[in-house]
Amino acid sequence: MLSRPVSLSALERRVIACLPDIDPDSVGDILGVGAQSLVRSYDVGAQPQVIKLPLFHVRRGVYAQTMGRLLGQRLETARAELDICTAYFEQYMVPTRIVSDTRTGYFCVLQDRIPLDEVTPQVLASAPGLNAQLGEIMEANRRMIAERGKWLDAMGWRLPKFIRFVTRGTPYLENVAFDARAQVLRLFDFGLFPMPCRSPLAMRAYYRFLLGIQRRNMRSFGHNFAPTSR
Question: Which domain holds residue 35?
Answer without folding.
Answer: 10-112
